[in-house]
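Section 3.1: Structural characterization of target chains.
Under the original work plan, the team committed to producing a structural model for every single-chain target entering the pipeline before any wet-lab resources were allocated. The record below documents one such target. The sequence was received from the expression subgroup and is listed exactly as submitted; it comprises 293 residues.
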Amino acid sequence: MKDFRDKVAVVTGGGTGMGRELARQLTAAGAHVAMCDVADERQVLAFRDAVTREHATDHVELLFNNAGIVGGGSFVKDDRAEWERTFGVCWFGVYYCTRAFLPLLIASKHAHIVNTSSVNGFWASLGPTIPHTAYSTAKFAVKGFSEALITDLKINAPHVKVAVVMPGHIGTSIVMNTAAVLGKPDALHMSATDVAATRELLARRGIPVETMSDDDVRAAIHQLAIAFRDAAPVTAAQAATIILDGVRTDRWRILVGDDAHAVDRLARESPETAYDQSFVDALRERGFFQLLD
């Protein structure tokens, strides 16, 4: 799909980050954009109906399943509700939206489904000291679903294409926004319980927390979230451009960022060591994942 002019595009997670930049660039290219942030199937269906009504259309050409949050790092220790909420946004949001909009995509002459997975869709980790299970599990599901759709659509709806996006570290507010989605206070107002858990995490990463007050810990996490957004090697706008260029050239696999390419390559070359410290060390030698230091 080389031209987005007058196409109807649905973007989830369009309020911030890559979703907002996708919406901006699609609008600049002449597309008609509808945005949402939902992971409840009834709300997704209501949104779909609102799209057809407000845009006076019986078809949609583009669906960007982009919304995501982090959280539920440990399957063993973290709250089940937080784990399932994270998994729900990152996986079921993709599933429900694809189910809801598929008939409208099929009704188009040409259509494209673009599912955002992650570098954690082929590396279920942030390093050997940081559990990252809910997000990684969901992103593996998104990757597998997208790849499985390639054959399904080719046989049953060949005019509908699918692409899976695998971003590395992109400058977004996903870390800062997650607490709000999970109904938790921001980093500067973390509860004493959350501060204690954060101390343990920082200590495992080799950060000397013994001399840090609770407010020092809160401030450190707040600054890490800001650094994740502002010190990223790829901006959200740059990521959106790469994604849209991938759609224009009908690429089904769109890696975003040199770090994504590096993790993909190393995980394929050395799968048995992917969850060892040596794997992270190899990435750091290449200049990646410095925020984990």
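Strands lie at 8-12, 32-36, 62-65, 111-116, 160-167, 170-171, 234-235, 253-256.
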